[in-house]
Write a structure and sequence with these properties.
This is Short-chain dehydrogenase/reductase SDR. It holds the Pfam family adh_short_C2. GO terms for molecular function: oxidoreductase activity, acting on the CH-OH group of donors, NAD or NADP as acceptor. Belongs to the short-chain dehydrogenases/reductases (SDR) family. The chain has seven helices and seven strands; from the N terminus they run E-H-E-H-E-H-E-H-E-H-E-H-H-E. The protein has 266 residues and is an alpha/beta fold. The chain has a seven-stranded parallel beta sheet with strand order 3-2-1-4-5-6-7, sandwiched between helices. Helix 3 runs parallel beside helix 4 and helix 4 packs parallel to helix 5. The protein starts with 11 loop residues before the first strand and ends in a 7-residue tail after the last strand.
């Protein structure tokens, strides 16, 4: 029987978009599990209302090891800098390079299909789909070059598999990540690199301006069933990432785990 508390001691975990929201929760969870965490984001400062301490400092304050590197994931050259930063985290007990890559950075905008401009489509897809594609590619190349196969976990969305209003450009980017995950898993299986994804449902984070408060009002009050529920919180997500990155999931690749309160089965 596998461990319910995976240990990532002596492993380096890169989390893109780790400064706030889902990424922040993931990064801190890996830090709590003993990993050396590298947060790759445009800004080290958390964007959540009421939060002041950067993610890497939260991990350090809990006696963990963490660092921050500035990165726009839409630029593959900046992802090269992230990989190099992970290689520089070497010490006597830690092999340099990426052991786990979490491609989580994302951009969300709400727009009716007929009103999406080419510029908005390109930017959303550059961050979400392009960022995940080259993040996966560069992490896999690092792992294979070092002959140290690791794990890649991508963040997609419940919109990858079901249509919703005002999200066509965002859904297109997240659907691309789902197929990237499956295709990369197939091609990299022979190298021992596993690639999986997590599909969150609606999560109350700052990425959806004006939506988070609405979502909180629609959460269960105790008078309604807990599942299915309309909105989740960042804390609902990390367990899926830790599982997919752990040895407990050594026979799992090309898979997407839905963490959406049962929304996709309703």
């Amino acid at each position: 029987m596998g461990s319910l508390n995976p240990d990532f001691t002596d492993e380096t975990v890169v989390v893109t978009g780790g400064s706030s929201g889902i990424g922040r929760a993931i990064a801190i969870a890996f830090g709590d599990a003993g990993a050396t965490v590298l947060n790759a984001d445009l800004d080290p400062e958390p964007k959540d209302t009421g939060l002041e301490t950067p993610t890497h400092e939260v991990i350090r304050n809990a006696d963990g090891t963490a660092a921050y590197v500035e990165c726009d994931v839409a630029d593959p050259e900046q992802l090269d800098v992230v990989i190099e930063a992970a290689r520089e985290l070497d010490d006597d007990d830690l092999a340099p390079g990426v052991d786990v890559m979490v491609n989580n950075a994302g951009l969300y905008t709400k727009r009716r299909f007929r009103d999406v401009s080419p510029e908005e489509f390109d930017r959303v897809n550059a961050v979400n789909a392009r960022g995940a594609f080259f993040g996966t590619q560069k992490a896999a190349n690092d792992m294979i070059e070092r002959d140290d196969p690791g794990v890649i976990v991508n963040t997609t969305s419940d919109t990858q598999g079901r249509a919703t209003w005002d999200h066509s450009h965002y859904a297109a980017s997240k659907g691309a990540i789902r197929m990237l995950t499956r295709s990369a898993a197939l091609e990299l299986a022979g190298d021992g690199v596993r690639v999986n994804a997590v599909a969150p449902g609606p999560i109350a984070t700052e990425i959806r301006e004006g939506w988070a408060e609405e979502a909180r009002k629609m959460e269960p009050t105790g008078e309604t069933p807990d599942l299915p529920r309309y909105a989740g919180k960042p804390a609902d997500l990390p367990g899926a990432y830790l599982y997919l990155a752990s040895d407990d999931a050594s026979y799992v690749t090309g898979e997407t785990i839905w963490v959406d309160g049962g929304g996709h089965v309703c």
